[in-house]
Amino acid sequence: MNYTILKSDIDLLRSAGVNESDTRHCLKVAGKALEIARRIGDSGIDQELVGRGALFHDLGKAKTHEIDHGKIGAEMGKKLGLPQSVTDIMEKHIRGGLTENEASELGLPVKDYALKTLEEKIVIYADRLVDIITDGIVVIHDEAEAEKRFEEILRTWEKYSKNETTLNRYLGYHREIQELIGRNEG
Q: Domains in the chain, please, with CATH?
């Protein structure tokens, strides 16, 4: 199945109050996440979950751009009737899935935000890649270069890695996903 983002979902994102810049970001993340899911080629990947999770991951930015936008977005998503699997991605995407201790340090509800599914990891990885590709901080010539240089970029630019714990989490997702892509494309 090749899932395509629905116009009704884009309209829902906008009607919830997400500004055009953040909407464009969400659309880019959804596109990148679906591309990665297709490159992995596993028919067991829920492409609809990948696409919708990526599209709505920053819904909370309709209310705030602070660290709690994931929690707020998940609450908004529940009120809008989004599936739990989508709101889970929204809530967990902050720094790629926080531990209870990290959540406490950041003033978020104390619980385990660890990513457990491949779909969740694909969305978070795509979000980080889109930031690298679009921020203009790192000079890259094409999107493939962002993937090839992912580890170097995260180790060099703290903006993308935040701290050692977050860095290691992102590197783990990168390696896992690239291995899956390599198996399919190889």
A: 7-185 (1.10.3210)
